[in-house]
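Hi all, long-time lurker, first post. I run a small reading group and we've been trying to get comfortable going from sequence to structure in the token notation. Rather than ask abstract questions, I figured I'd post a concrete chain and ask someone more experienced to write out its structure so we can walk through it together at our next meeting. Sequence below, copied exactly:
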Amino acid sequence: MDCLLFALNSTDGLTTTPSLLHDKRPCDCSRASHRLWQAVDDKDRNAIIKRRAEELAKYNQRVEPSKDTLTIVDGSVPLSYPVRGLTVAPEGTVQIPGLQVLEKTIRQKYEVQLETANYGVLDTIAEVVEAQVKGLRTKSLTIRSKSLSRLNRQLQFIVYTNNVYDIDATEIITFRYLDHRVSIPLRIRVRTVPLLYDPGPDNNINAKVTVITKTFLRYDSIRALLSSIRAFYPNIRVVVADDSHPVEDLQAKNIDHFVMPFASGWFAGRNLAVSQVTTPYLLWVDDDFVFVKETKLENLLEVIENTRLDLVAGTVGRTGIRFTKMDIVPGDEKGDCLRIHDLHHWGQVPGFPQCRLSTRVTNFFLARTDSVRAVGFDPVYTRTAHTEFFMATMGRLRIASCDHVRIDHVSNKPAEYRKFRNAGADYQTSQHQHQYFKHNIQCWVDYNTLQ
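-- Answer (accepted) --
Happy to help. Here is the structure in token form:
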């Protein structure tokens, strides 16, 4: 982006359209809705920024080896080589296909070099007559020949062997000929086991979906929810995480009631509920929701099983479909901006015109169990949180919102419940401090202020 802006600002007669650039304005918190940096005391801010920068550097160092490497191919380079799709398992060996010198000039001799960067060595599985190979089983391999065809024949037998263990990293192999130099990315990746769930011989929804919820001081609501579930899905399993006191027993056939210490917290309870799911999908519902005839879980299941989506939401009450676009606008040492574009989406889900790709959706959703577990719910959020979960899913889960499945919402906020739910300014301050450090976010901003 910086290179492109530099090119656009040059005075070489260009007629430019800079408005086409996505990030047209940098991270600017002057009109932010949530100014997280204000939750940090002025006297502590510089020290916190320094500690956060150190932790961010460590984080980037951990994830950097697995990132894709920018590779720009110069069409004038007389070399053939792979630029994508080359993968090897740790301690594995892979042949490097497509290596060739495309030289039209006749020379007295030809010479190429191949070098690895960090994770392995080069070798050959066959030696070609009239081709000399130097540096076998090292990081630097040189091939010489008076015959271009012999040299190219030898290149067909070059292999790479990994000898530095990593579960997910990118090796860069450098290929040189004369003054030409190209980079070949090679992915080092552990072979993973699939995570499969047996749907049973009859492909029944009860073997595929577990309904989960978290309740707190609202037994009238949770009993109404459970009763409505039984009316439409009498045999589906329900998991209830409960940190109320005093406790009322909810255990019943196909209902598992997990009691937590009093006021353990909103996201801690969600983690507990998710941890008890043994089906491929979970359905999250709030404890004051009620199933109605439009709560057709099969419709959500059809969407998620026929797409690459990880999480599919329905509608709640009579508010209609809800969706939000969110993304990160890079900032400076003060942090980045979380940009929120409410009531907007990323487009229609192919094959499902009722569904829109989104970043943030309602608390009525069907999701892949393993996908939600991989993100989890930060137990720091004990009283209120919603956007915070979807912030954590950004770039990790594919999410959509659909309007053809609905659940009802019967709001119920008893006085004792409100005392905990409305945690006050101190709670909000602590959450802003947490986000400021953990996610390197200095503010939440509306889309229209940064377009």
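A couple of things your group might point at:
Residues 321 and 403 are 5 Å apart (CA to CA).
The two ends are 15 Å apart (CA to CA).
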